[in-house]
Amino acid sequence: MDFFAGVLGWTVIAEPGGSFSGFVGDRLAARVVAGDLGWQVVFGGDGARGLRANSSVDGGRVLHGPWAPPPRHGEPCWVELLTGTPGEDDEYWTRELGWEAASGARALGLFTSARHGGPRPVAGTMQSCLGAESSWGVYFAVDDVEAACAQVVELGGEVTSGPGALPIGRVASVQGPHGGSCALLEKPAGWGGNWAG
């Protein structure tokens, strides 16, 4: 928690049972739960339930996403399903979350939703070179990706790729000194960075 708070500027609040919450202003950015492995992505939807690939649904107010305020430094700004074969699980996610698998060359690997108006990108997919089972990867907004990467190294973490330009924007992948991988996205204008426009 200290590592990610240092890189992402979270205000940390201790929770019962050894867990911690990281806030950016008045918005919850992440919760670190004692004993959990990796990121657990919580999607807004109808009926709280568990889903595949380190994710679940909660019927409460959505804090981050395409209809939320623009992400600030330290807030989640995109999620991407890392999978052995992109597209193989599209039917599952569209059925469970009411999404559409976007079509067209520019939209390859995108899910969209029209839950609160016109369709907007809500998540991406990317082929994992590790061949592991599918899991959700999380992107966090940063004001300056180079400065954030320098902070990662200073705090004992590792920059595993980047910084570099991708269709979503300028990104880097990082890992904390005790595990916990994520991507950093520089100055996203909205949920999904360049996909938002």
Automatic annotation (TrEMBL):
Signal peptide span per the entry?
Answer: none
Q: Where is the VOC domain?
A: 75-187
What is the designated name of this protein?
VOC domain-containing protein
